[in-house]
TrEMBL record:
The keyword Transport applies. Coiled coil: none annotated. GO terms for cellular component: membrane protein complex; plasma membrane. The keyword DNA-binding does not apply. This is ABC transporter (ATP-binding protein).
C-alpha cells in the first residue's frame, strides 16, 4: 500500500458511498453525482478536481452536510450523516467541520479575533489558547487581531478564515476554491498553511480547486467527470495533474 492509498471507507475521516444527487426532475433533471464512492484519509490533504459541472461542489456540499444527497451515504468519522435532521447536520457542521470559502465569508462587523473564535463561541466552547496563539503566529495575524475584515487584505482575510477553521480542531476542513480570489503569492501562503496544518497538526483537509498549482500541494487528487470518480493521483505535481485533466477533457 502506498502512503497515500485511499483509506477503506470505514476508516476515512469522511466518505461517500454510492452517492447520487439529482437536481430537478423529469426532462430537466441533472444527475450531478452519479454513484460516487470515495474516502478521504485522516491527516491527509486531498484535492477534488474536474471540469466545470463535473460535480465537485455538489460532492463537497453533500460531504459537509450543507446539502443532502438523493441516495447513497455520507459517513463523517464513521458516523452516518445521511438521513439526519437539519438540527443534527447544523450541529455536525458547527462542531466537527471547518470551512474555508473562496469569498472568505467573515462577518464584517466583527474583528479578526472575534471572527476566529465565533464558531467556538456559538458552540459554548473555550478556544485552546495554545493552539490559537500558534495559529495567530504562523498565520502572521498578531498585528491584525483588532481589525475588521474591511481593514484587511484578501490574503489576510483568508488567513483569518483559516484560523477560524483550524482553531476548533475539526475532523475535516473543507476548502472550496480557497485561493480563487487571491493573487498568486497570497494563494501560495494559504496553500502552504493548509499543507502545514496537515503535517504539523494532523488536520484532514479536503479542497475543491481548478488550479493544478494548488492541487500540487495536496497528498492526493480525486478526479471527477460527469458526476463520477474518474481517477486518482497520488503525490501529485503540477505536470501530472495537468496531464490528467487534459486526458479527462478528451475522451478516448
Ligand atoms: N441547484 C442546482 N440546480 C440544478 N442543477 C444544479 C444545481 N447545482 C448544480 N447543478 C448542476 O449539477 C452539475 C454539477 O454542478 P457542480 O456545481 O457540483 O459542478 P462543479 O464541478 O463544482 O462545477 P464548477 O467547477 O463550475 O463550480 C452541473 O451540471 C450543474 O449545472
Amino acid at each position: 500500500m502506498t502512503p497515500h492509498a485511499p483509506p477503506p471507507i470505514g476508516q476515512a475521516a469522511v466518505a461517500a458511498v454510492d452517492l447520487v444527487k439529482v437536481y430537478g426532475s423529469g426532462d430537466t433533471a441533472v444527475r450531478a453525482l452519479d454513484g460516487v464512492s470515495v474516502g478521504f484519509g485522516r491527516a491527509e490533504f486531498t484535492a477534488i478536481m474536474g471540469s466545470s459541472g463535473s460535480g465537485k461542489s455538489t460532492l463537497m456540499h453533500c460531504l459537509a452536510g450543507l446539502d443532502t444527497a438523493t441516495s447513497g451515504r455520507v459517513l463523517l468519522g464513521g458516523t452516518e450523516l445521511t438521513g439526519q435532521s437539519d438540527r443534527t447536520l447544523t450541529r455536525a457542521r458547527r462542531d466537527r467541520i471547518g470551512f474555508v470559502f473562496q469569498a472568505f465569508n467573515l462577518l464584517p462587523q466583527l474583528t479578526a479575533a472575534q471572527n476566529i473564535t465565533l464558531p467556538l463561541d456559538l458552540a459554548g466552547r473555550e478556544p485552546d489558547r495554545d493552539l490559537l496563539a500558534h495559529l495567530v503566529d504562523v498565520l502572521g495575524l498578531g498585528q491584525r487581531l483588532g481589525h475588521r475584515p474591511s481593514e484587511l487584505s484578501g490574503g489576510q482575510q483568508q488567513r483569518v478564515a483559516l484560523a477560524r477553521a483550524l482553531v476548533s480542531r475539526p475532523e475535516v476542513v473543507f476548502a472550496d476554491e480557497p485561493t480563487g480570489n487571491l493573487d498568486s503569492r497570497s494563494g501560495a501562503e494559504v496553500l502552504a498553511i493548509l499543507r502545514d496544518s496537515v503535517r504539523d497538526l494532523g488536520q484532514t483537509v479536503v479542497m475543491v480547486t481548478h488550479d493544478p498549482i494548488a492541487a500540487a500541494y495536496a497528498d492526493r487528487v480525486v478526479l471527477l467527470a460527469d458526476g463520477r470518480v474518474a481517477g486518482e493521483i497520488d503525490a501529485p505535481n503540477q505536470g501530472s495533474v495537468t496531464d490528467a485533466l487534459r486526458e479527462l477533457a478528451v475522451p478516448a
